[in-house]
Amino acid sequence: MTIPVPVPVLDHVVINVADRLDEASALYRRLGFQLSERGHHTLGSSNHLAIFAENYLELLGYEPGRGEQRKDLWQAPPGLTGLVWKTQDAESAYQHLQRQDLDGDAPAAFHRPVTLPDGEASEAHFRTVRLRPALIPNGRSFFCQHDTPHAVWQAAWQRHPNCVQNISEFVIVAQDPALSAQVYSHLFGADRILACQDGAFVLKAGAAKVRFASAAYAQTRFGSLPEDYDGAARMSALSFRSDDLAKVKASLLLGDIPFREEPEAIVVAAEQGFNVALRFHL
Q1: Which CATH number is correct for 164-281, 3.40.1190.20, 3.40.50.620, 3.10.180.10, 2.60.40.10?
Q2: In the predicted model, what is the mean pLDDT of residues 254-258?
Q3: Cα–Cα distance between 146 and 114 in angstroms, integer?
Q4: Mutual orientation of helices 21-30 and 245-254 as an angle, nearest 10°?
Q5: For the chain, what is the radius of gyration of the CA atoms?
Q6: CATH topology of 10-157 equal to that of 164-281?
Q7: DSSP label of 102
Q8: Where does the Glyoxalase-like domain start and stop, copy by copy (predicted)?
Q9: N or C: which end of the chain has fewer CB within 10 A?
Q10: Which of 167, 161, 216 is nearest to 52 (CA)?
């Protein structure tokens, strides 16, 4: 049987907020995102989502008394810790991971209750399959199969005060960007990884790009790194495509969020984004 090579498309990103869900959700609303009501996974974690056209952002943490569940997740540093790929077939993705010697655990199924915009009670069901944890420093990368996409992508949840339409860039900072990109070269094929003149490497992932870059690049483009950055490979920054930078600026002013204006972008430092640097552009 032929096992297809997955096509890289960003499904969502995960920001680890651990026991600070209230603080993180209030912050991201001040940043101009509409967030879902708090969801509770059958595995014990809880979340808020900012849903976009093709991908979404997840604030993932736990409520009081649940810190022992999914304890491995909370060992990661606060901030950006999850790079998640779309799949229509988690079992096929797992077989591909096995073939490439990238596999971790077998696919896992879980769900969370959801109230749809019209008030209907529903459930969001997923199957995920993770790359071997040892291959992904300071975080996780996995495939996510949405069995009920209508319970995630609803038009009413895709309208944000800052007019963001999609995550457009996911940045992994590393002393050796080529080495950090290597696992994804094995995963998707070497021809998917493009070398840039600035020394970075880029993987096109649907509406987004995953960029493997030096700390100097991140400092120049985003103005900051996670406060606890220690030189090890680290998921560190996000870019967003917005339809209206004036709305981004208005949201940040209303939310009392410091920012830096550039000719074609607005940048929020990592310390203002829950240890994640944020860049908004047209």
Answers
A1: 3.10.180.10
A2: 98
A3: 14
A4: 130
A5: 18
A6: yes
A7: -
A8: 10-187
A9: N
A10: 167
Side chain identity at 113, as an amino acid letter?
A: P
The tokens for 60 are 């993932």
Domain ranges in the chain?
Answer: 10-157, 164-281
Determine the residue type at 13: V
Q: With residue 61 as reference, give the H or E element that holds it.
A: strand 56-61
Work out the angle at residue 201's Cα, subtended by the Cα atoms of residues 196 and 207, and round it to the nearest 5 degrees. Answer: 100
pTM equals: 0.96
Quote the tokens at residue 178.
């080529």
**Regarding the domain delimited by 10-157, which CATH topology (the fold level of the hierarchy) does it fall under?**
2,3-Dihydroxybiphenyl 1,2-Dioxygenase; domain 1 (3.10.180)
Burial of 129 (0-12, 13-18, 19+ CB in 10 A): buried
92-127 in b/e form (b: 16+ CB < 10 A) is bbbbbbeeeebbbeebeeebbebeeeeeeeeebbbb
One-letter amino acid at 51 equals I
Contact 131, 104 (CB under 8 A): yes
Q: Percent of the chain at pLDDT above 90?
A: 87
Is the model's pLDDT at 1 over the cut of 70?
no
Which of 124, 114, 170 lies closest to 145 in space, CA to CA? 124
Residue with token string 């917005």? 242
- Tell me the backbone φ, ψ of residue 251, rounded to 5 degrees: -65, -45
